[in-house]
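Hi P.,

Sorry for the delay on this. The queue was packed all week, but I finally got your sequence through. Input first:
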Amino acid sequence: MLTDHRHEEILSQLAQTGRVGVTSIAAALAVSDETIRRDLKMLEERGLLRRIHGGAVRPRLDQERPLTERSGLNSREKGRVAALAEGLVEDGMSIFIDTGTTTLAFARRLTTRKLTVTTNSIDLALLLAESPARVNLTPGRLRPNDNALVGYDTVDYARRHFFDLAIMGIAACDLAQGWMDYEEHESVLRRALQGQTRRAVLLADSRKFGRQANLRTFDLAAPLTVVTDRPPPEPFADRFSRHDIDLICG
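Then the structure:
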């Protein structure tokens, strides 16, 4: 049985029951337990499930984790992305920075810069409160797990302003679906920001490539600056090279 077909069967059962067992799915697909364990490992690396003893369960969505917990994940990669993105910043700029762990790492590098920073992240605003930057906080409904302000008022505020840079996080990058997010709030805000800035910048550590989320935010051909800690996998790099993508990588 082909690998893609096995993966489809595994994900189908996972969607129906929330759990798959190695032995039962191996028997159903007439393959060895070891083959299924390899399949589960591959699917976990793509962010499509979470392995447990004897099988796998649905992945824990990133937005379900508190921001403080997520900040410690892949911190080296996020720090490298933040350092590379800092090179885009010039004193005096007006910058929108949205919520997320990579954008928060980026903001930590701006504490001595003279900027105008607009954000929907309360944590980020507090981080820069004692800096030389002028900090504007958007309106919106408070989302407790990451102290983000979200909703219609947030997007409407962003659409009334224009920025030199819009620095945005992203949840995943899939070759077929493009740049993806888990929640409608992020997806809508990021699409709005793309039209309100001289330069739209996605901060995406290398682990985001080959993953999927729930919502399609940007096509891979969308004119964006993409900052990542190392060159993306060849299929993504090839796609970017054929479109108006400014790729910055370590």
